[in-house]
Specification:
Elements: E1 49-54, H1 58-64, H2 66-76, E2 80-84, E3 90-91, E4 99-103, H3 108-122, E5 129-134, E6 143-148, E7 155-157, E8 173-177, E9 182-187, H4 197-216, E10 221-226, H5 239-243, H6 265-277, E11 280-282, H7 283-287, E12 299-300, E13 311-312, E14 315-320, E15 327-332, E16 350-354
Parallel strand pairs: 1-2, 9-10
Antiparallel strand pairs: 1-16, 2-6, 3-4, 5-6, 7-8, 8-9, 10-14, 11-14, 12-13, 15-16
Length: 361
C-alpha cells in the first residue's frame, strides 16, 4: 500500500566492502555463503509455516527494527518468509541493463547499504534460509523470499508467465514450485485514484493476469503478500470513510472506481472473482469470521491526521480450497492504532501454518 506519510530518506554511504550473494543462481544462501555443513532433510515435501510482511524498506527495517522482527521469526520458526516493498535497487550501473536478482553495489553508498542488509540476513535465525530477490531499477517496490535450506524448490520463477529468468516490472513476483504446491509472493500494484495507465488500467491488467495464472496452475497454491485490496467491509475499520475517500476532490466517472484505492467496488469484485473462479480461500477470514477492531487489520494509516486509526486488511494468505481443512492458524502480528507489532512498517507481519498432513498424498 502506498504510504501517506514519511518518505524514505537517503541512508548514509559506506566504503566497507560488500558481502557477495548468488541470487542469480537456482539456490542461493541468505548471506553466509551456504557453508559446508549439510543439513538433514525433513519429511515434508513443501513448507508448512509461512510469514509475509510488507517491510516498507527492508534496509530501514534492518537498521532500526531488526531485533523485534528477529524475535518474531525465532518464535514462529517459519519455513518461508516473504517480503514486499524491499525498496533496494537492482544491480547495474547507470544507463546499463539491470539484474533484478542482485542488489546494486557499484557505488560506495550502495555497497554500504547492501552490506547492512546482508549482515542482518547473515545473523540467526536468517542464516538458515536461502534468499531470492526480484528488484526494481530504483528504490521502489521489489520482493524477496527466504526459504529454509532443507526445503529446496524444484523451480523458481520471477513472473506470472513462468518464463525463464524474466522478472515482472518493479519486482512484483517470486514464485516457488515444489513437488506438492506452488508458493506465490506478490506485491500487487496499487489501484491509484484515476483512469490512468499507472493507476486503474495497470491494476485491471494485473488482476486479469492473476486470474489467468490461478486458472492455469496444476498444483495447490499458497498465495501471499501485499495484495492491495480489502475484500469486504469487514476488512476495513471504517467502510464509509474508505468508500468516500477522494484525492484532491477528484471523482472518477465510473462509480465503481470511486473511493480509497484497495476498497473500490471494481477491485473488490475482481478479487472476489479471482477467489471464486480459482477455487481459493482467504485463510485468515476462513478462521476469523468476526470483525476485530483491535487486531484484524494489516495496514494502518498515518498516526497523525485524518487517516489516524483508519486501517485495512490488504495482506493475505490465499490458499487452494483443497487445503482449507489443513489450515491450523493464520494470524496478524500487529494491532492498535499505535502500530504495535508492525516492526517499524505501516504493515504488520502475517503468518500461516498448515497441518503436517497438508502434503501427504
Amino acid at each position: 500500500m502506498k504510504r501517506f506519510f514519511q518518505p524514505i530518506v537517503k541512508d548514509g554511504s559506506s566504503k566497507k566492502p560488500a558481502l557477495s550473494t548468488s541470487a542469480d543462481t537456482p539456490l542461493c544462501p541468505a548471506a553466509d555463503g551456504g557453508g559446508d555443513k549439510k543439513e538433514e532433510k525433513r519429511g515434508a515435501t513443501a513448507p508448512l509455516k509461512f510469514l509475509t510482511w510488507n517491510a516498507n524498506s527492508l534496509l530501514l527495517r534492518a537498521k532500526n527494527n531488526w531485533p523485534e522482527f528477529s524475535r518474531l521469526v525465532q518464535s514462529l520458526d517459519p519455513d518461508v518468509i516473504c517480503f514486499q516493498e524491499v525498496r533496494m535497487p537492482a544491480a547495474g550501473s547507470k544507463g546499463a541493463p539491470k539484474n533484478p536478482s542482485e542488489i546494486k553495489d557499484d557505488t560506495s553508498s550502495s555497497r554500504g547499504e547492501k552490506q547492512v542488509l546482508m549482515r542482518a540476513l547473515s545473523n540467526p535465525p536468517f542464516r538458515e534460509y536461502h534468499v531470492w530477490w526480484s528488484l526494481s531499477d530504483s528504490k521502489y517496490g521489489g520482493t524477496a523470499l527466504l526459504c529454509k535450506k532443507q526445503l529446496e524448490p524444484k523451480k523458481v520463477y520471477f513472473s506470472l508467465d513462468r518464463l525463464g529468468t524474466k522478472h515482472e516490472p518493479d519486482g512484483r513476483v517470486i514464485l516457488l514450485e515444489f513437488d506438492s504446491c506452488f508458493l506465490l509472493n506478490t506485491y500487487s500494484p496499487n489501484n491509484g485514484w484515476k483512469e490512468e495507465e499507472n493507476s486503474f488500467i495497470r491494476r485491471r491488467k494485473w488482476d486479469k493476469r492473476i486470474l489467468e495464472f490461478v486458472l492455469q496452475i496444476e498444483k495447490p497454491l499458497i498465495w501471499c503478500g501485499d495484495l492491495n485490496v480489502s475484500h469486504q467491509e469487514i476488512d476495513v475499520s471504517h467502510p464509509e470513510f474508505f468508500s468516500n475517500a477522494k484525492l484532491n476532490g477528484y471523482i472518477p466517472p465510473n462509480k465503481e472506481d470511486c473511493g480509497q484505492p484497495g476498497f473500490t467496488l471494481s477491485e473488490r469484485r475482481r478479487f472476489d472473482n479471482i477467489l471464486t473462479q480459482g477455487k481459493l480461500i482467504d485463510a485468515y477470514r476462513f478462521l476469523h469470521k468476526e470483525k476485530d477492531m483491535e487486531g484484524g487489520f494489516s495496514w494502518s494509516g498515518n498516526p497523525v491526521g485524518k487517516y489516524r486509526g483508519k486501517r485495512m486488511r490488504i495482506d493475505y494468505f490465499i490458499v487452494s480450497e483443497k487445503l482449507k481443512d489443513k489450515i491450523v492458524a493464520c494470524e496478524m502480528h500487529g494491532h492498535g492504532i499505535e502500530l504495535e507489532g508492525f516492526c517499524g512498517s505501516d504493515h504488520c507481519p502475517v503468518s500461516l501454518e498448515l497441518s503436517d498432513e497438508a502434503w501427504q498424498s
